[in-house]
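The records we work with from here on pair a chain with its fold. These numbers are not coordinates but entries in a learned vocabulary of local backbone shapes. To see the layout at work, look at the sequence and tokens printed below.
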Amino acid sequence: MDELILYLDPVNEASRAFIKGLAPSGFEVCFARPDGKFLEGIYSLDVRYLLVASAKVTKDIMLGCKDLKLIQKTGAGTENIDKEAAASLKIPVAATPGANSAAVAELVILYILVLYRNLIELDRATKNGSWLMWEKRHQCFELKGKEVGLIGFGSIGRALNRRLQGFEARVSYYDIKRLDQNEEKALGIQFKVLNDILAYSDVISLHLPLNASTRNLIGKRQLEIVKRGCILINTSRGAVIDEAALIDALECGKLAGAALDTYEHEPIKADNPLLKFKNVITTPHVGAGTIDTWKTVLLEAFDNIKRVSEGSLPRNVVNEVF
């Protein structure tokens, strides 16, 4: 009998077929209900592995599985999983770090170019019959020569830096762990303290995990330091930014624009003021949302599940169980 994997995030039929097609021999994948109420019926399933992207994984869900061997995240951030509860039940939680680096880095480049060239406004104006060939030139910029500050320099930050070098941008970074100066030189990047990143960058891009030290890291005081006319990009976690402070900075014109893929509360509520700004790009947490990345993370996840099934330790465990 095949071992059972439960995929917790509700997905459509095409996605189900894609996931099932990648599963290794000897495993069967079952899915959450479309409404996300996957708890009903889970207790009758002999689930060995949980596979999850963004759905909440609570202790009740863990206890609902008869013999759970692994909780496998398709991605890097695991704040949606109760890791302490999993550790208390001796269930390892594993991630797939780094697999989404290219997708997120490309999206950040896209955000910058769209904001710098006013593409959304120009597209809408052209479709509505306006020919703004000259009217917006004073509000359009090149990425070449601009100071781009990266806050957090993990795998995504490194991937983004490589791409920014091709645009001839000047790149600086802040991270709690500074690189060796020889490595900084090889990467063409300069270390700066956080306040200097804020004060001198034309573009700021956030690449941080969400924890006690990073929650609301970018708040009222930090946005007061930011260079006027800067654009702010967040593809990490929404709660890294104080949304109320961000709204104030946009309303007063301190920021020229922003691009947000994550929010303090997801899905973002329809009355969130961030949705009213013409100079703010809002996307529904799709930084890693390419078929290429999805295939990569699923294959890594299934490989980890297979390892556990064969009696080996899983890779990239994020809670203390061993």
Notes: The first strand starts at residue 3 and ends at 7. The radius of gyration is 22 Å.
